[in-house]
Amino acid sequence: MIVQQQIEQQLQSRFSPEFLEVGNESYMHSVPPDSETHFRVVVVSSSFEGCSRVARHQQVYAVLASQLAGPVHALALHTYTAIEWEKREQGVKASPECLGGSKADQA
Question: What is the C-alpha radius of gyration for the chain, rounded to an integer number of angstroms?
Answer without folding.
Answer: 15
